[in-house]
Write a structure and sequence with these properties.
It is a single chain. By secondary structure, this protein is of the alpha+beta class. The chain has helices at 3-16, 24-27, 29-40, 48-51, 101-110, 116-131, 145-148, 167-170, 172-181; strands at residues 54-56, 64-75, 81-91, 95-97, 113-114, 135-144, 159-166. The mean pLDDT is 94. The chain has 9 helices and 7 strands; from the N terminus they run H-H-H-H-E-E-E-E-H-E-H-E-H-E-H-H. The structure holds zinc ion. Zinc ion binds at residues 75, 77-78, 80, 144, 146.
């Protein structure tokens, strides 16, 4: 990311919306915005294989769930935040993953320009790839500012997406257990 270039462009936007970019409150804004982009769009630089270490599951073969993982992302259609919670469940085969690594996996894909459907699938896909588990389920509940502040202006709408693989897709009991546990 070229911070100087981003600063210039933000300054340009501030002026184009009719503001005075030189006034006190806005003077430092381009710099702050450019800096915040490092975090908000830092996912492109993160590498799942480097960040996520898996280890031997010692024959544990029941469902593992990490629920209510907070996330912030930005929608690719309007560059407005969408945010909420991710719930991840899986049934290991041989390998498991440290529980703190699941929120990390979420960060990698949330810190980009995204849509909620793809974010859901990418998390499920990467977890499947790394662990080769018997099944994976990912559910995301999110609010989209592009929907709340513009467009249809609906404040209380939550969008829910899910991506299920393996037993989470084929076995009704597994699926029900997952959905019950993340309630
Ligand atoms: Zn949007």
């Amino acid at each position: 990311m070229d911070q100087v270039k981003i600063e210039q462009l933000v300054k340009e936007i501030i002026e184009q919306i009719g503001e005075d970019g030189t006034r006190e409150g806005l003077k430092e804004t381009p710099r702050r915005v450019a800096k915040s982009f490092e975090k908000l769009f830092g996912g492109y630089k993160m590498n799942a294989e480097e960040m996520v270490t898996e280890f031997d599951g010692e024959n544990y073969d029941e469902m593992i769930i990490c629920k209510n993982i907070d996330f912030f992302s930005n929608c690719e259609h309007h560059m407005q935040p969408f945010f909420g919670t991710v719930h991840i469940g899986y049934i290991p085969d041989k390998k498991i993953i440290g529980i703190s690594k699941l929120p990390r996996l979420v960060e990698i894909y949330a810190r980009r320009l995204q849509n909620q459907e793809r974010l859901t699938m990418q998390i499920a896909e990467k977890l499947s790839e790394i662990l080769k588990p018997k099944g994976v389920g990912v559910v995301i509940q999110a609010k989209h500012l592009c929907m709340m502040a513009r467009g249809v202006e609906k404040q209380n709408t939550t969008m829910i997406t899910s991506s299920c693989r393996g037993l989470f897709k084929t076995n009704q009991l597994t699926r029900s257990e997952f959905l019950k546990l993340i309630e």
